[in-house]
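From the pipeline queue, job 12 of 40. The input is one protein chain; the requested action is below.

Action: predict structure.
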Amino acid sequence: MKNTWILLAACLVATPAYANEYGEKHETHGTTHEKSAHGEHAAGHEIVSDEVIAEQRKALAENTKGKGFGPQAPRDIDAKDGSNDIVFSQAPDYTQMNLCNIHFHKNAEHKGGQFTDYAGNGNGSGDGYQSGFKAVIDLSEKETAAIHGKICDSLHSTLMPGDTIEVHYVHSTADIKPGATLGSCLAADVDNNPQLRVEAQVYVVVNDKHALDFGKLTKVAEKNGKFQAVNMPTDLGTPVNYIGSTTGPGYNEKGSPFQVSWEVFPNVAKVDINSVGKWCEGNEFKEDHGHGVRNLVQNKDLLSKIK
């Protein structure tokens, strides 16, 4: 008989823990960067070996076995199997929830659909940079032509034409307004046990002003009494629904205790890189760079079965 795991409010009341779900170390932006698309890396962020990743996977298995952790994320959305016996109810449709946060990861955290090209092991230090999956779609020379200046530049990376990003539109059943970090998904003045849903979409940033405008894709307005990303695409294939957790490289060696309903779209769209850069220069979510990625969860004991 399957166990039902109820997320305790105590796990969510601590907003600082929630705010660090990206799993990154603090960094100072705008000083140095790495150009992953061109094989240039900042000092101290070299690519780690397969052995390091294997050790991280081993630690994750050891640190979660028999400790009541529910299914994890990210995963291969084309692989349906999973044997984690902890279940929870799917969150409502995102249209019935409040959008609470939008952020993106450099390279896709999930694998599947049109994003299956492994970017490499990354720096393996808990930052999760230079890893993940890249889109496999045709791009013209014009779309990948070099641009002037740095886009969404950080200590670890900067966006280049042709790069892949995975955008997370995070929704909460809490009565909140959109804001910075995943802490915005909590209602500060009540006991917190909201249901969470993430609509995940993968884009390739291109040097083309006629491509999708990221500012429009992330525009937030109230619709039927709920905060929504009113221009979020819904035509990127049939989304894969599954129950999992929050992501972020901070969970490479430990389980995330947070329950999340995921809807991951399998197809990729092209977005104007300069519009992404403009968004990074100022937005209501205080996002200014692409976050790192968590290792793809492969342990079936930590995966739900996709129906």
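Job complete. The chain has one domain: 50-302.
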